[in-house]
Amino acid sequence: MSNISLSATDTARLERLAAEAGSTPHKMLKYVLRDGFEYSERIVRSVNAGLSDVAANRVIPHDQVMERIRATIETHARKKTAA
């Protein structure tokens, strides 16, 4: 990769983003160049929010979600066949 120069502001932004992602500025630069700062920051914050939800047990296990989906489908199927 060729040398890339960032402004002091962008360098600081990249360093903050890397810290939030638990990564290095060098590794994050590839994503910022491809996707832009705004998108990369939004993705990192969304992933971190999801991880926080998991850590705080604010999620529904997959098997429970599937059980609810099946029950909903069955309810609607019964209504459709009764009509």
Structure description:
The chain is elongated, with a radius of gyration of 22 Å. It has 83 residues and is mainly α. The chain has one domain (8-82). The chain has helices at residues 8-21, 25-35, 37-55, 62-82.
How do you describe this structure in short?
This protein has 83 residues and is mainly α. The chain has helices at residues 8-21, 25-35, 37-55, 62-82.
List keywords for this structure.
mainly alpha; 0% strand; single chain; 83 residues; 78% helix
Please specify the SSE layout and strand pairing.
Blueprint: H1 8-21, H2 25-35, H3 37-55, H4 62-82
Helix/strand order, N-terminal first: HHHH
Strand runs, count: 0
> What is the average of the pLDDT values?
95
Distance between the termini: 65 Å
Total of helices: 4
Oligomer: single chain
